[in-house]
Amino acid sequence: MRTSEIHRRWLDFFAEKDHEIVPSASLVSSDPSILFTIAGMVPFIPYIIGTETAPYPRAASVQKCIRTNDIENVGRTTRHGTFFQMAGNFSFGDYFKTGAIDYSWEFLTTDQDHGGLGFDPERLWFTVWEQDEESYRHVTEVVGLDPQRVVRLPREEIFWDTGQPGPAGPCGEWHYDRGAEYGPDAVTGTVPEWPGDEKAEDRYIEIWNLVFDQFLRGEGKGKDYPLLGELDQKSIDTGLGVERVAYLLQGVDNMYEIDQIFPVIEKAQELSGRVYGADGEDDVHLRIIGDHVRSALMLVADGVRPGNEGRGYVLRRLIRRAVRSMRLLGYSERTMPALLPISKSLMVESYPALEADFVRISEIVYAEEEAFRRTLETGTTIFDDVAGAVKKEGGRVLPGEDAFRLHDTYGFPIDLTMEMAGEVGLQVDADAFRSAMQEQRERARADAAAKKAGHTDTALYNRLLTQRGGEVPFLGYTEDTVAT
Ligand code: ATP
Ligand code: MG
Ligand code: MG
Ligand code: MG
């Protein structure tokens, strides 16, 4: 089943159940405290926390999302994109737990000829809060799920809240069992103990999170707060990962191989001459390319422009990481003009506005690649000088300080430096590089502390102001190097 078809079925299913169909909000959230829309519930927050009355009792959407906290997972797990689509159904004081569980079960297991996704019921697992008797009983007794596949978890594992006093509640999560070839069985094996267990993550895939917004919570750190009682208006907020469902239904191995992404990877293979499936690290780069090209497309479409701070920096980083991955695959020609139009053609069915806007979008993305190419050229000249000097003296190690200067001043990614050093028979002094990075971080921290103490000049103050609303501060290129 194509990804756009899952999207369409979702909306049809919930329209049929009297839900107001709400179009996806922009990736750029209207809430200035959130950098991007990270979940389907974001546009509905006022209705869920009760600061506004919902204009409809139930709603459904397929929301475009960006999660920067998943960037390091991209290409390494089977299921994390920086951009993805979260399908959600919502109830504001209307149906509650049993209604939400019934709808989810019906949509997941109704066969494909009758509007559902047609998942094999025997492969579905459900996780619930250990004190949520109502959900447990409903899913085992009414839905009829084998109790062996219903796992009860402590509050730390399965509770939603906003981080401050207000609404909170337990979740119920659907997981799909991909089968024995992906890991030990959660029933007969001793590991994993439950589907959400990290060790089990290749086998048991979380596909749908149902949040039962039930309690009023008090003050407390983490999940350690008192529940003060039941809310007057209880809400339902759910999120199903469209790409995860797509990859499971399309019989491929991970979300980067779905119809909306894989043709970009195929093009990247063709350009680089590397074959997907032949080498683990190459595959990670190919998946990063498939993911990041799409995320860049969707971000620029929603009005983000590359820059050095906040949203713009995230976009810049995505484009540069994609270009860098192509270089690490041995391809150093212009790459976005070959890849971006493919991504657009794959996304346009679900997002028709991409067609008319594509000239503008592509100009922005191509210009950013050009800027990065110039950076890389300057860096390469400096690299050649340094490497030449080391070799002339018969050395075999490229000093960490030089690698750091390339990185810090010229924006030259460390893994590229390492790769290029390898090509000329040198090794980068990684320890020295790391300690230079560490020193820089400490300097930045000291600066921040000075700012807090009031020792701040107006330029810094202005920059801080423009950063407000950016939950991800400008970190230079440091995050690019966490793998080292
Ligand atoms: P995981 O534990 O796998 O990281 P999550 O618990 O962080 O997922 P939720 O915040 O519950 O995810 O989001 C609801 C649903 O959205 C998930 O059940 C999943 O199907 C999907 N989802 C979450 N993050 C991603 C992502 N980075 N890429 C693709 N789909 C995602
Ligand atoms: Mg997550
Ligand atoms: Mg989870
Ligand atoms: Mg979850």
Automatic annotation (TrEMBL):
Keywords: Aminoacyl-tRNA synthetase, ATP-binding, Coiled coil, Cytoplasm, Ligase, Metal-binding, Nucleotide-binding, Protein biosynthesis, RNA-binding, tRNA-binding, Zinc. It is an enzyme of class 6 (ligase). Its EC number is 6.1.1.7. Its cofactor is Zn(2+). One of its GO terms (molecular function) is ATP binding. Its main location: cytoplasm. Binds 1 zinc ion per subunit. Residues 1-484 form the Alanyl-transfer RNA synthetases family profile domain. GO terms for biological process: alanyl-tRNA aminoacylation. One of its GO terms (cellular component) is cytosol. It catalyses: tRNA(Ala) + L-alanine + ATP = L-alanyl-tRNA(Ala) + AMP + diphosphate. It is found in: Cytoplasm. It comes from the Bacteria. Belongs to the class-II aminoacyl-tRNA synthetase family. Catalyzes the attachment of alanine to tRNA(Ala) in a two-step reaction: alanine is first activated by ATP to form Ala-AMP and then transferred to the acceptor end of tRNA(Ala). Also edits incorrectly charged Ser-tRNA(Ala) and Gly-tRNA(Ala) via its editing domain. Consists of three domains; the N-terminal catalytic domain, the editing domain and the C-terminal C-Ala domain. The editing domain removes incorrectly charged amino acids, while the C-Ala domain, along with tRNA(Ala), serves as a bridge to cooperatively bring together the editing and aminoacylation centers thus stimulating deacylation of misacylated tRNAs. This is Alanine--tRNA ligase. It comes from Brachybacterium vulturis. The chain holds residues 1 to 484 of 902 of the full protein.
